[in-house]
Design goal:
Shape: globular
Strand content: 5-15%
Number of domains: 2
Helix content: 25-40%
Distance between the termini: 57 Å
Bound molecules: zinc ion
Oligomer: single chain
CATH topology of the largest domain: Alkaline Phosphatase, subunit A
CATH class of the largest domain: Alpha Beta
Largest sheet: 8 strands, mixed
Length: about 500
Amino acid sequence: MAKSIVFITVDCLRADHVGFGGYRRPTTPFLDSLTAESFVFSNAIVAGTPTYYSFPAIFAARAPLALGREILGLAPGEATLASVLKQIGYATAAFSAANPYISARCGYDQGFDVFRDFLDHEFGHDGLPGEEASGNGHASASAGRLREINRQLQRLSRNVVSLAKLYDEVYFQYCQRWAIPPATSLDDLRRFPSADRIVGEACSWLATVGRQPFFLWLHLMDPHAPYYPTQKALEITGQPQTSAQRARYLNSFWQRSDLKPQSLMRHRDEVIALYDAGIRWVDSQTSRLVETLRNFGLWDNCIFALTADHGEEFLDHGGRFHPPIGLMEELIHVPLLLRVPGLQSRTTASSFSLANLAPTLIDAAQARPQAGFERESRWEQIKTGASWNEPAVVECIGGCTNPFRRDSGNRLRPRLLAVREARYKLIFDFESKRERLYDLETDPHELRPLPDGTETVVRRRLLECARRHIERARNERNDDLSLRTRLSEMRLEWAESSHQSATAGF
Ligand SMILES: [Zn+2]
């Protein structure tokens, strides 16, 4: 009998912040215990970053930009992990914690009997971290006169650099301490439904599946900015004293655009502690989900996989959050744990691209699908204990922080590409036409690119791999799918504009 699959993706989860990835804090005690019966990929690499360049590869096993840079998400009718499994009789359900880039609008509902993305009024936002209010938008309407004085002060202060800095600091502190009503609850501040809610929905659905094989996908946002863990998560991570007010202050501080990295360092550790509490909550709720699977008698025939769509930066290279800028390890290296009943636990250091995950999962489930994927399965090597040498390739549009905009500042910018082996990594920027080569063994934090002209053999090998990737993407390009996506987007835009016209009374 084909095995069921439970697949968890965690937004923004770095490989080096889980226990089985060597983290010093106990963020993942349950997942660590699960490694005793799992295959662990210590070099799992996303195929694109952030969310909108990572998920097409995870679900459709293809390069993120294979359909053209103007295509966002999955194409209508494209073979996906869910649609392939549904076709062969799996019950399918998705519970996703309000990330608009993996919504039905971007094609992710395809193949799911039940698709719940929580993008309702309660969590109706675009999920972009840069938009968290730093206080400026919270002043009450009655403060109009104050705002005018403030505007004048701001204008005056811009003439003198030191005065401008002082102004920014005073204004930030004023907003945080006096202008905004005090925060009383972390639950009120949180932007995304927390893991307990997503897991709760999943458990209710599991109670209905019966004996047929099923595919259950959960996408959890707890470690995503703004970092507002549950109160319980703060307690179990030893920070019960962190109040909602303090958490809001830290998040607002962390989003300040007027501060340089050295000033932001002041609260970095506290911000990371909030992020880690989010991971701890994912871990405890995953434990609850597995317990439910056991209670329902489903665990013994169930494949379990957990990974992330990308990581998160905490000033490692001077940045924050996860914009597609550098393709450094904190963004592209993610945890991946695969539990298949009967499979020996093992860790592989071979570089594994998440573009190979969907076919690997289908093979591991012995589901024998009709539809093929562009990327191959690694199941044979995993099963037999063999390794593989193919490097992982990561691609994205450099600096594209708002893919819903199609202008040249976003989706049409030059691409960024990384080729990642277990030891060496090459990053190629198509804008500057420059490459950087890192030896991750001697320089795991990517602080010193190898000097030009050194390691010529490695350099040539990785550049050749980049060339093959671009060529393959060109050959793989499926004009039919691209056309269908464009038509579908046009239909959506038309529907939206007619809705706006209707509500505007035209
Ligand atoms: Zn994401």
